[in-house]
């Protein structure tokens, strides 16, 4: 490997650090230390880039998937007391591991803050992010990331106390004179500042490095409003609303678009195909009503289902996977509805009537044909 390649890798890593600091997502990141079993973000180091191979080959040879998560995003990726990681994003890490390695448990979860995540991908510290990261133009180009299928369509909303005069019908215009808490240097911060200006509302914006600081300040009465992705607000409301307070989330229509899904390094089609089709397989099987409980009964079915489960005409081996790769995904982890309902229903996030319903039910969750 030439010195030029190594230097290029280091320069790319430095560039990603700068870009991440100026183009953060409206996520629920926290700098709270995770238990020992969850790997902390390694120090940034230059890595040698393999100009000929794919990251897919590296992961298979290693036998473990290094998956970047938040570790503190309620219902999406939460590090438990025993070091395990649960949630919607965590299960999609497991789905990729099941497809690539045949074992949904062959995952090393790496807890990353918002400022660490893109560098971790660029330097090879993680193989992909399943970390409530919004797909934006700058990240898709200048930052050097590629994005897979959107697994959760989110949008920025606001949360306030009912006792302060807010309700579900409140709007950004009603924020006039309010103190608003959010995360520093994020798209959330920029979105609320712009929305308030357009609505003619004069607000005082308090920005914090971590989400835990935001909610601690909000609970203590240091601000009137907190704002981030709607799913994060719902999770925090369920977990942290004090017994003597009632919080309300508004407006019904979010003030921004926040498409969330897998994120990985650019220009590795083989690796991208595997991640993308793992997600698509969960969606397609959901459409057919094929679950972790009955998937074994459908091996050998004709058409699209049979091909995805490793039957005649399968394309998984062409992708560098075992023929039964997606069979293992569904058997070990589940289809899209199973992953969604298990993790998000308990905090009040349901698919019905939302953008995250299937396309046949009026939503945006959709997969191309497997043929």
Annotate the secondary structure layout.
Blueprint: H1 3-22, E1 39-40, H2 55-62, E2 65-69, E3 72-73, E4 77-79, E5 85-86, H3 88-101, E6 107-111, H4 117-122, E7 128-129, H5 137-140, E8 145-147, E9 152-154, E10 156-161, E11 179-183, H6 187-199, E12 204-208, H7 211-219, E13 225-229, H8 230-240, E14 247-250, E15 258-260, E16 263-265, H9 269-287, H10 303-308, H11 325-332, H12 336-344
Parallel strand pairs: 1-6, 2-6, 2-7, 11-12, 11-13
Antiparallel strand pairs: 3-4, 4-5, 8-16, 9-15, 10-13, 10-14
Helix pairs in contact: 3-9, 3-11
Condensed summary:
With 371 residues, the protein is of the alpha/beta class.
**Rg, please?**
21 Å
Order of helices and strands: HEHEEEEHEHEHEEEEHEHEHEEEHHHH
Q: Name the overall outline.
A: globular
Tally of distinct domains: 2
Task: Give the CATH superfamily of the largest domain.
Answer: Periplasmic binding protein-like II
Tell how many strands the DSSP assignment holds. 16
Q: What is the CATH class designation of the largest domain? A: Alpha Beta
Number of helix segments? 12
Mean pLDDT across residues:
88
- Helix residue percentage: 25-40%
